Automatic annotation (TrEMBL):
Keyword set, alphabetical order: Lyase
CDD domains the UniProt entry points to: DHDPS-like (cd00408)
Family statement drawn from the similarity comment of this UniProt entry: Belongs to the DapA family.
Organism: Streptomyces griseoincarnatus
Name listed for the protein in its UniProt record: Dihydrodipicolinate synthase family protein
Signal peptide: none
Amino acid sequence: MIPTSPTRARAPRAAGSPSFEAQRAALAGVVAIPVTPFAEDGSVDPDTYRALLRRLLDGGITTLTPNGNTGEFYALTPSERRLVTELTVEEAGDRAAILVGVGHDVPTAVASARHARDLGAQMVMVHQPVHPYVSQSGWVDYHRAIAEAVPELGVVPYLRNAQLTGARLAELADACPNVIGVKYAVPDAARFAAFARDAGLERFVWVAGLAEPYAPSYFSAGATGFTSGLVNVAPSVSLTMLEALRSGDYPTAMKVWEQIRRFEELRAANGSANNVTVVKEALASLGLCRREVRPPSRPLPESERAEVAAIAAGWSI
């Protein structure tokens, strides 16, 4: 018999502290990352953004992440990030849980998290620290400073660091019980399976942070939700995959995978250079927003736009 790693027990919750059950349930689904549309003058386009949010909500999406990478988080100014958060909370109302992306230096991340809390958002996602020198204990310190500043909010680290151990995540959650989920975005299903079990498989909600292409393999190892940029274009496609994965119907999930494969390959090409670009191009082809992105992203050349439009037109939208 093959021995299994012990599952770390969930730390006891202090009396009177929030349970975060609603937030945990919201993470176990399609976690949509809305694009941030720009107007002709290059500014954020509030009316178009609201319309895109309504389309997601009307399509059945119940968890939204403003200021995610598909929303060009790192290309937005602080005031634009606040605006996007405000628009999302206002437009969603009680129709969706809001998971606000925060990051940069600790004071900036804390201020953004408190802003999200004051608006009524339920959770924050902490972007992977971009500093070139990140120690494992420093990773814990960074996230602990943010989580402790907003104990009322569920906190979801966005984890892209393959070197981080599950024990470090467990250490963070021991100190901060509001760390309730993980957006795991290391492209290695075996590493994910080991990491989740070392940290505590049942202790956190595990969100496949590399979207639909990785969702089937990550669900087989314990994930219960996945992020999506594609959902901006075709909410029904993402929800079809979710329902198949929830029911253990992997053949159906893989049919969806085949349907979206080329679209996601275009997004992932050249180190994901066109990750956001392809999504916005698809939306532009449907007349839903402008195709413009901000540096370091760049619009698709004319020669590649037709393929994206053809893919989007072929989906049941």
